[in-house]
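Late entry, glutamic acid complex.
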Amino acid sequence: MSSAPDRPESPATTPPRLRVAPSPTGDPHVGTAYMSLFNLAFARQQDGAFVLRIEDTDRARYRPDSEQQILDTLRWLGLTWDEGPDIGGPHAPYRQSERLSTYRPYVDQLLSSGHAYHCWCSSERLAELRADQARRKDPIGGYDRLCHGRTEQERAALPGYTPHPVVRMLVPEDVELTFEDLIRGTVTAPHPDDQVILKADGFPTYHLAVVVDDHEMGITHVVRGEEWISSTPKHLLLYRWLGLRPPRFAHLPLLRNTDRSKISKRNNPAARLTWFREQGYLPETLVNFLALLAYPPLLEADGSERELFTFEEFSDRFDWHKVNPVGPIFDVKKLDWLNGMTIRQLSVEDLASRLLPVLVEAGVLGPNPTLGELGRLTEVTALIQPRLARLTEAVGWVAPFYVEDDALPIADDARGQLGAEAATILDAAVEALSGLPTDEGDMFGHGRGWTAQNIEEALRAGVVQGCGVKPKVAFGPIRTAISGQRVSPPLFESMDILGRHSSLRRLRNLRASLDAATGDAG
Ligand code: GLU
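Prediction complete; structure with ligand written out below:
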């Protein structure tokens, strides 16, 4: 642990411009939020700009609704952009498919300067070439430059020709493989292949489009995942050939599963960004969690560390040197812990307002709850706030407070654990509580007979002592009667919220159902 508090980088002379450039190929990936967060943290700290660019040149993998999902989830997380496809900006359009005419002159320049060449090899020939290289265990591999230096006519005379050429980079033997990374220092990447930059369908590949757009959009810092390290020498080559000034690079470590494998939508539901919302995580928790994946806890001036922090705190103290380049483990247990801690820091009203849409969605509450229902929600929220890890957990706990007493479902496992003494206990509970006055009281609750404390005292005297059973044995059937569940929010407080009438009715209902089950009428 270092002794100095976190210190931001000194501000650059011109405000930096950063971007995130997701490809709309399906459900947004959690990596998109992770990249956006680190880009945005630096952009905000430096009073720079954050651009959202949609990289949709891979038409085979393009999914039409994916872009909207990306925008929605990033906005839900509060990771908002200054320029983008939905809001425009000085470098519009921000969708690569709408910028095709931008790329062509750059391709022509590379062709005429001899840094790029047409390639008419058919996909069958390229597949054969790869298979042959694999058989021969060719350590270099890559394209064999059959088309390089040939006219179309010359090439057409050879096998494996297609009339729809691509354009490839002519990567020299002595290409510079080393570059400086803001997180990793000096990085060396493997020797690249003669990369395709323009496809037969007229679309640029990622490699050309990313360089052209980052230049045209004035991007000063390219912050992206480490899987792009091996592409960076190609990009730097393109910058050099085109006479452009390259941006600075930072490659964030890839997110990993607990077994250290790369996180993917196939092997981990948490790779889907929408999963977090569905599971009831708070947006600020996810932001906090994603930051902690590659960044240490915040260091306070007094030397203590803090894991819970806001985006603003993260951004204020952000420093590239503190980013850990080693693949962070995506640990959902830690996420649950962080979410619980964040939930407990919310005001009861704030938490209730976040639970409301979850409860409406689950059908616990209707779309237009009454004031009474909302008031009860605040009371129940206060009760469950200390033990809630995810918003969705509240559904099961809150539902019993919104059902008719006679329609309360009793869960099978709760009914199954009722012992032979349940009937006696429920009778004793009804008896003990019938003695408590109604819940009338003044506006401060003074003078109320029906309070959690009075309920507990009455049940301890009437049931625990009265029946001579342990509290656990006594309160099990009562909990089942009140909530229909084996596990519920605190029992006496729940009965306080439900009120005297409902509580007694639920106790009597469960008691009566025991009679029905045994055929005993008495
Ligand atoms: N479109 C690329 C992706 O989806 C962006 C890579 C970059 O940021 O350069 O990961």
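Residues 21-23, 55, 206, 210, 224, 228 surround glutamic acid (CB under 6 Å). Will revisit in the morning.
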